Amino acid sequence: MASDSVNAAFAIFTIATLHYLLYLLLKSFFRQAPGKTMHIYKPIITLALIIIAGCTTTANHRSARHKEMVDIVKQDAEYLLQYREGLKRTLAYIDKIKNIFPEEKQSTEVHLTTEQRDTARQVWSTYLDYHHAIGNIAQKYKDYSDIKDNDELRQLSFNVYRSAFNAQYLHAMQFIEKAEKNSQLDHVLNEASERYGFGSNIYKDFKFLYLNVITATEFAAMEAKQALLKRAILDNLMTASKEDSSGIWEMGKGKGEWMTIKNAGTIIKKTGLEIIYPVQVSVSEWMGDTRVYRKHQSLISVRDIQEKIQPRIKPGDIIFERREWFLSNIGLPGYWPHAALYVGTEKERAAYFDDEQVKNWLQDEKGIKDGSANSYLKSLYPKAYADSLKPWHEKTPAILEAMSEGVVFTSLEYSTSADAVSVIRPNLNKIEILKALAKAFSHAGKPYDFNFDFQSDNSIVCSELVHKSYEGLLNFEVPRYMGRFVLSPNEMIRQVIESEKNEKRLADLVVFLDGNEYKKAAYEKDPAEFKESWKRPKWHIIVNRSDKGEK
Q: Of the four, 230, 313, 375, 509, which is 20 to 30 A from 213 by CA?
């Protein structure tokens, strides 16, 4: 911010100086005092100043634009490193489940139990999640050579693309090598799964893409090209890419003739990544319009929130959210990656719990003389209650959610500014809802649980906050996922839908707003569509291009 002010001040000073020098130059040239003749040339001076100012402004704009694009590339490089670590963690977990992924190739078929097959699908789903995230980055920078007038940005883009390619290639071969040692996995991984969001024959296509001479040739081409480029500034990414490159050579893939840079460029342009990532926007396109990735924009508008969510939502409601192109989507199973709890504003709680049964319960059993729900919460957790009143981004807090900052009180406008939002209402009475809010307040201020460990109460992940708030009231089952007990937001919705088949429904839908990436808007959908939403592929935006029926 300070540097921008300095640049602006310098530009103004430069223009003023040039103005004065130009005036003196013309005055000297025509040897006239300011008068009739000089008056004739004042428009010339003004025009010259406009041109100078325009050039300066254009230069500043280009500089700012260049910095913005470089910052985007660097951010994508950081994301890439995190996704790569996700692949490594997944492969490390595979090494621990030798009854499914044996160390040696099995000479006879080994029967996998239902639980083992489900574990294999969990691993496959998690692996694909990180793999697709890297693939999106790769496809974004694939057309790096189309950048003609910016050498730094072109080289940075190439390095990100090469690093993404190498990360995918090495870890794909490592996954295939491990999976091929159990012939039963070929069948399991090719089965479609609604629960984990992938179609049939995905593993077959995956093997075709990475056990392919074209992919090996592209790898060799990029190695040749990289050898002739000067050192880039993405040191951490380059180190990781070099490690992956060495791993690929060691596995005996990609060995072949080294090619000229001309041939390398041609081969790189002709690979088959479009098979898996058909709609990603290339670097050359987003250079022209950074809005493609909707930075700080969401498909659900403020008007949507004010007109379709705010009038319907009540304290105790559970909110599920999705943001496309968002880091937190990665590594969590299923379409819905985030959950939050609507605790209401102080005024909303006072009105909602202004109920005779609630008052009697608070007075008789909890000793709250005025029978106020707010007095009850304040008496239990005074600090959390005080925090719940502090403005969040200049808005009144009404939501408690676990984010990277920890368990914090946020506003409805902030939290539901997303690309898809659904709100459900637990099938409970108001006393039970108040009990849940009290439990929720007990977790306020705790750090975020980046390990997704439901067995620990010291730190909390988003769906864990909701689950522990309603524990003993809503009977959510916490399944094991890749060796840990994890209840994802998507699994919560699945269980809510399944509960409709029983006498005791867990919750009812309040509202479902579904974003349409291609219309850059959100539309309210009916309960039938909500019931199917948990089955959507994790990368729904990539495979769902339809805008039919949106009004």
A: 230
